[in-house]
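G., before I forget:
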Amino acid sequence: MKTATSRKSTAAINPPSKDETKPVVMANRRFSLWNFWIASLALKLLLMPDYFSTDFDVHRNWLAITNALPLSQWYRENTSQWTLDYPPFFAYFEWLLSLFVPNKVRQDGCLDILEVGNFGWPTVVFQRLTVIASEIVLFVVLQVFINTSPLSERTQNFVVASSIVISPGFLMIDHIHFQYNGFLFGILIASIVAARNKQYLWCAVFYSTALCFKHIFLYLAPCYFMFLLRAYVLNFKDFKFKSYKDLIFIVQWTNLFKLSAIVIGIFGACFAPFLNDSPQVLSRLFPFSRGLTHAYWAPNFWAVYSFADKILTFLMLKLPYVHKFAIKIISPPLIPASILEIKQRMLQNNNGTKGLVQDVAFVILPQITPKLTFILTAFYQALAVIPLLFDPSFKRFIGSLTLCGLASYIFGWHVHEKAILLVIVPFSFLVVFDRRLLSSFMLVTAAGYVSLFPLLYEHQDFLLKCLYTAAWCTIYFYAFKKTSKLSSSVERRIFFLDRLSTIYMFSLLALVLGVQFLDVMNWRYQTFQKFEFLGLMSYSVYCSLGIISSWIGLSWLYNFDEPLWMSD
Amino acid sequence: MIPIKKPKKSDNIVQSFYASPLYDFLYPFRPAGSQWLTEYVIVLFALIIRCAIGLASYSGMNNPPMFGDFEAQRHWMEITQHLPISQWYWFDLEYWGLDYPPLTAYHSYVLGKIGSFINSKWFALNESRGFESLDNDLKTYMRFTVLLSEAICYIPAVVYFTKWVGKHRNQSPIGQFIAAAAILFQPSLMLIDHGHFQYNCVMLGLTVYAINSLLDEFYAPAAFCFVLSICFKQMALYYAPIFFSYLLSKSLFSPRFNLPRFLSVAIATVLTFAAMYAPLYVLGGGLTNVVQSVHRIFPFARGIFEDKVANFWCVSNIVFKYKQKFTQEQLQFYSLIATTIGFVPAVIIIFLRPKKHVILYALTACSMSFYLFSFQVHEKTILVPLLPITLLYTSTDWTVLSLVNWINNIGLFTLWPLLKKDGLMLQYGVCFALSNWLIGNFSFVTPKFLPKFLTPGPSISSVDDNYRRRSLLPENFLWKVAIVSSYVIMVLIQILDIFVSPPKRYPDLWVLLNCALGFACFSIFWLWNYYKLYKLSYKTMKQL
């Protein structure tokens, strides 16, 4: 009733250009991200005086290095501990930014190579503005994504695009914590958009460029490789197997040459100046000396594993018969032979736990080697990539991209919690295809964004990050629910699991508030300070539950649900 | 080319902020099933922007020995919880002695107790003066208390008000929410409360509750809320004549003498005042304490104006030095006369025709005359007249909306010297631009200068392709000239203030220019408001 009256009133004000009562035709609708940019710009400007992490000084140092030193020294300079450890394209980018440093900022100490940066407000403003400016790439790419999509899909694609541009992930990581993810993901998304538009060469161009900016995108490489291979290089159309010679003809050789020329060309442009120095550059890019988990465990499988280890240790120390029982089932090399050994191992571990990045040694459970994490990641990525070989559609590609991201996030070595964006961003493109993906998506976004909260540990950001994430979730869970397609098999949804995931998400709120409460009480009850790790641990364990179940849910749909993947 | 149709006065019923960015944002939540979401979204973003403003510095940050309003509030939390109530209005008056009514003191007491429970260092007696820590903990806590007070007192009241007005004027639900958002994003209040640091939102929010009660015809609760508002901050007295006259008229004449109503209002008022002052009397040394608190609340010993403020006395003081020609008492008397002349017509009108739709105009007339002519006015006091003015965003009259927006901008501009002192330049600029952009004042830019696909018209909203939203300017040519020229002067003064240092002989020149412009605009608005009040008092809500 209410809507009826208001519709009438809108019609009254619409200028009588064509037809008074006719609603705006779909073709006339423009889906613009302009308003989102302005509104988020206002918020980002207000966030400038906020806390920034050491990453700020890291990037400032890179500005200084690239500005002051010749190319050959970029990867050798080590006055500060924040050495350059991004691929060369990013270094060029920093160099480009350093050209625009105004005199006032320069005098402020922005471009000084020091052990610890000594700078003030002008540098902060300059660097924050570079993040805001470079993020325009993300907006442009997503606007192109909307404009090049078919009319029938524009509404849902607009939801996808706007959900990404104002994502709490970018706000927290880029505009408070300080990084350039918006810009870098803009390039990655460009490759996704190219894949959607079947412009495979552009897809390769953007992906390899993105890779040369930030090598974390390497996690997605298997998927891109398989997709481009199957969709662009191989052609099974007229394939009839007579002898092995025929295999030669499924390869479209010209395409292969074009593709490899482009990829090699980009990598060449990126790494050629550093060819003589390649071992040094590689050692900077891939520091294998780091531990399995970060000081704050990223919410993945290893967080659960570490948690289980802690619990088992506690149990075995308090209740020795648990150990006696366990030792009967599992032979000693896999678990400690005696209680004494447990205590010894704990002592050893405690010596090194105060550092930020350290090796984690487990007390009860078997140690994890980089090789094992690599095998696990590769295995689950292969599972995600193989279906692409049979069905190189865009939907499949996005699905496999998401699963690749998830597999490496859940099983990878030294995963950073920020890497969750590598999952959430592709997943946003996927979720609109089917309503049943929604609960998996909601789980991973809610848990993923909440798992970023410990990055902004200062109390002044607490309300901001909570409210912003809550607002985003409220708006976009609603919007995705409204716009994602209902497939015929929707009855097969398991309502019990949906309820469970709703309960999970609401208890995330309880988790956040509870941990914050403990944190605030720190001032009053000094004893709480000893348990500071408890808050972080509950964050990572609880969030990892959500992320892992989301992965299981998505994998199920990806591998066993036919109607979902049928082309329209 | 299709001629662009301007929205005429006949289009009154439609959403006033049609095709503005707020409309674009909120339009997708239009389906009846999801309107509850809109409310949450607006409130969430209102809170988010307040949090973001709160990251900036506050008044007197790192500025010993006296610091600023932040320290004053913190100091009151300190003394109220550590000293007996008999000492509250007596303790070390030189250093931010308590000079607000008792409800502020109780409010400080509760918040101070909670704060001390968290960290006793923040409010340790005498030792915590000027407490500042590197990790901003105290600042965070204090900002949180403002946010909490606002979330309880101000935001629900405003949302309720817009819904009430919308319902009684057949505004579409989305239109009501847009009005609510426009009011909640009013920049001056956000910047003063969450940037500069004060608790004006409590006083203003209680007043809005009182207005809501009047609209719902709950007279005793209205009196109760309004007395609470006065007892939080004496500035609410600027509204008092109107509330008094409205309630009196409603009890005496409309439609006939209503004794139960009269008694309930009278009793509610007296009891609330009594309850507020009882602790001072009973627990704290009797009448002298009450008298001292009143003495502290009305500082007649101070000058006729403080700092530079855009009212009559300060601006005319440029040519006519009052302080040399008259004594303090004379000035008090003259300002009293001037103020009374200023507000009495409004009181008479509201007494003769106590209608709901003129309440806001009457409150504006009355509080604005206090601001312009009364004694000891601060620049922050502009928030008091700005409240009823901003609530007029619920109107659908283009002229009213334009003038409301204009006076809000001028009001914010007169706060510039204060905000500049607090180091809130960035926040000032962003809020200025954001609040105007949200209600569509810059929407004319987009079709002209952006490629077509970027123009945010018919995206998810139903705005027609060729529709251009105009900026909020009245139809009347004279008004247009006045407003545009005031904006031009404003920009000029702003540029001078930022980039040019004032001549040595007149170090306050830019500030005085600012005040002069402010005074001129406020007076014009005040006169127009009287005209509007008079005309509307003959109409009914239905005729609007």
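Chain B touches chain A through 75 residues (CB under 8 Å). The longest helix of chain B spans residues 509-536.

More on Monday.
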